[in-house]
């Protein structure tokens, strides 16, 4: 599928199996919203073939383009976007009515879906009388009331407060699992992906850079974005007998976690907890000793994450690497943003994986 919007081009190809929940992740501007809009029929692609349950929704070569309201695709966005003049029940019944069902059938479906999402007692309230979490539950009920063959979720918890989001996430997880609802979820939050998704697709600059089962992608990321959300450090380069060679010729010593041939595109991955931080170059067992300039201090619960920038004269790929230290270790180190430090990682802590596109 190729879709162009202004100067941006989305060029992707992947499948979602019936009943599967797939999360699409990527940095801002990677094409996530363009993907959902194209699948929903809101954007016209330049070159695409989109099928759903054996039906052809889009085939540019054959001139096929099913209108959005006939696709049986449900779309739930960050904002509930409920009709302010309708009750919760009538908001949910609106979709089935537009699909041609009788008023009686539509209201019955609305009552059932509202009970499913835990707000059956709020059926007579208008949106102004609902909290953010309650409104989003009604929006979920509305999306499911049309019995979509594909449910598209566009950052559905982003606008909720920290108390409402977990409850709504739990409701949505139960519903998609119980009903076997085929779902495509766009999110920036790794918690959404872990809780809801069977599989991840990672987009960067309009293309798929990696995809696979959720646990596998987060444990062995092939892209910088996936590594960042998984809380891991990642260095790209080519595989070597010693581990990895970066574009500037630096060797990152590590262990191949699977079959990867020397010269093959690869990534070296290690957790920030495996990084020791020093004021001077350390001696002894660590094999990877990297100059770094401290860019930021990020509290992470019981540890503090030290975010690195490239040091003058040092390798540029150090920029963005992280090290986790205890508050006591940070106090002993006495480091502040702007200080020059040394990051050290044992080769046994570094896993080298093939890099796929």
Strand line-up of the largest beta sheet = 7-8-9-3-10-11
The gross shape turns out to be elongated
Uncertain runs are: none
Helix content: 25-40%
CATH class of the largest domain: Alpha Beta
Task: Report on this structure.
Keywords: ATP-binding, Molybdenum, Nucleotide-binding, Transport. It holds the Pfam family ABC_tran. Residues 283-354 form the Mop domain. It is a single chain. The chain is elongated. The strands form five sheets. Strands 7-8-9-3-10-11 form a six-stranded mixed β-sheet, sandwiched between helices. Strands 14-13-12-16-22-15 form a six-stranded mixed β-sheet. A five-stranded antiparallel β-sheet has the order 17-21-18-19-20. The chain starts with a strand and ends with a strand. With 357 residues, it is of the alpha+beta class. The chain folds into two domains: 2-215, P-loop containing nucleotide triphosphate hydrolases (Rossmann fold, 3-Layer(aba) Sandwich); 274-344, RNA polymerase II/Efflux pump adaptor protein, barrel-sandwich hybrid domain (OB fold (Dihydrolipoamide Acetyltransferase, E2P), Beta Barrel), CATH 2.40.50. α3 packs across α4 and α4 (132-145) packs parallel to α5 (164-179). It is 25% helix and 31% strand. It is built from nine helices and 22 strands.
